Amino acid sequence: MNVETIGLWAGAVWKALDAAEGTLDVKGLKKATKLKEKEVYAAIGWLAREGKVNVNEAAKDVDVTLV
């Protein structure tokens, strides 16, 4: 895993969130992007660091919303 790869995953997650009108949980992101859970979390971290998403802990999952 390298920075370039994580950036690609972040792009896939951003596109999935955009297509879903802004909010998905991790389960939905895995399904939409075909990424593994650890890859989704790495992408979420990238996007959160850039200030492009908000992350909220839900009852059984984590909700991710575009800013």
Write the layout of secondary structure elements.
Blueprint: H1 3-19, E1 23-25, H2 26-33, H3 37-49, E2 53-57, E3 62-66
Antiparallel strand pairs: 1-3, 2-3
Overview of the molecule:
With 67 residues, the chain is an alpha+beta fold. It has three helices and three strands. Strands 1-3-2 form a three-stranded antiparallel β-sheet. The longest helix is centred in the N-terminal third of the chain and has 17 residues, at 3-19. It is globular.
Q: Which features characterize this protein?
A:
single chain; 67 residues; alpha+beta; Arc Repressor Mutant, subunit A; three-stranded antiparallel β-sheet; 3 helices; globular; Winged helix-turn-helix domain-containing protein; WH-like_DNA-bd_sf; DUF2582
Number of helices: 3
E-strand count: 3
In the CATH scheme, what's the topology name?
A: Arc Repressor Mutant, subunit A
Integer-rounded radius of gyration: 11 Å
- The helix content is 55-70%
Structural class: alpha+beta
Please state the average pLDDT score: 94
Biggest β-sheet strands, sense, barrel: 3 strands, antiparallel
The CATH superfamily bears the name Winged helix-like DNA-binding domain superfamily/Winged helix DNA-binding domain
Sum up the overall morphology in one term.
globular
Protein name: Winged helix-turn-helix domain-containing protein
Pfam family, one: DUF2582
InterPro entries: DUF2582, WH-like_DNA-bd_sf
